[in-house]
Amino acid sequence: MNRREFVAGALVAQAVLPAAARVRIAFLGASHSHAPAKMKVVQENPAYELVGICEPDPKLRAKYEQAGVPILTQEQLLGDTSVEVVAVESGVKEHAAQARLALEVGKHLHLEKPPADNFKDFQALVGLARRKGLLMQMGYMWRYHPGINAALEAARKGWLGEVYMVRGTMNTLIGRDARWEWALFHGGQMFEQGCHLIDPMVRLLGRPAKVTPFLRTHGAFNDKLADNTVAVFEFPRALGLIMSSVLQPDGGQHRAFEVFGSNGNAVVRPIEPPLLQIDLAKPAGPYRAKTQTIELPPFRRYVGDFAELAAAVRVKRPLAITPEEDLLVQETLLRASEML
Question: Contact at 8 Å (CB) between 34 and 142?
């Protein structure tokens, strides 16, 4: 896919640095479900040196220690001036507070999603990072996805015509034991996982004029988790529809991101492994008319994220996605979760 080569490939090349120039990174919290895979990506990337992790749960600490990961206290992690980047991979309730600790001592930040459970705390983090000249990267896992980025490119460059609809499906299946943690927040599944598709929709269409959430509890469980959720987003000339449920077996195979325009559509389904189809009424950009399946490079979560972060730290440049975009995504997520 040479005309639409995913930018992360170039970033990975930039981020392969001599050992002396490696970015030293530590994890503040490692209980989030994304933490093990992110740690593996960091360990395999020669641009990074993993200094260690700080994790209060003794069972998790033991698991990481057995895998050869150094264990740090919070004081050791935050007080080590050689640590340049902190990855916050704790439970969502701790994200904002731990992010602030890292920023206050001058660390660049990779912050797991959702970055905060309210808007005020996230605004404060953005302001703090700006004042200190620090990078703060959000952990939305498909920002470097080749299919989603190709769909966004087709929309932004007008190849799809005038975009009138964006639709996303983000379903999964979780057991009874996992539901309590996801029920900690009013938005439930929309807040926990719908955020991954609210992110590209908002970065494409901007701030919605109106958001109408439907946060329902339909599973046969004795709890209040909003486990079957839909949100409708009204933009000046388009609609958005994000659906997110925890009730679908093999839900990952049915996840999708779709952009519809007056000249055709771009459909990523499934999202992992990535499959993109473009269907146009008239040829546009590099695409011919009618339905075509687009060849995509392999995709592995988090590789592009950490590659860009290492390169940005080393050459002292901003991240591709701006703090203004991050603020807008957070505001819209909270509106869709009835938490603003």
Answer: no
What are the tens digits of pLDDT across the range 67-78? Answer: 999 999 999 999
Q: Please give the mean pLDDT across all residues of the chain.
A: 94
Residue 21: burial class (beta carbons within 10 Å; 0-12, 13-18, 19+): exposed
How far is residue 296's CA from residue 6's CA, in Å, rounded to a whole number?
8
- Within 105-146, strands assigned E span 108-111, 136-138
Percent of the chain surpassing pLDDT 90: 93
**Cα 36–65–58 angle (5° rounding)?**
90
From the list 124, 125, 242, the residue with the least C-alpha distance to 191 is 242
Q: Which long-range contacts (CB under 8 A, 24 or more apart) does 295-298 make?
A: 295/1, 296/1, 296/6, 296/146, 296/147, 296/150, 297/1, 297/5, 297/6, 297/9, 297/146, 298/273
| Distance from C-alpha of 239 to C-alpha of 171, rounded to nearest angstrom | 20
Q: pTM for this structure?
A: 0.93
Q: How many CB atoms lie within 10 A of CB 124?
A: 15
Cβ atoms of residues 62 and 53 within 8 Å: no
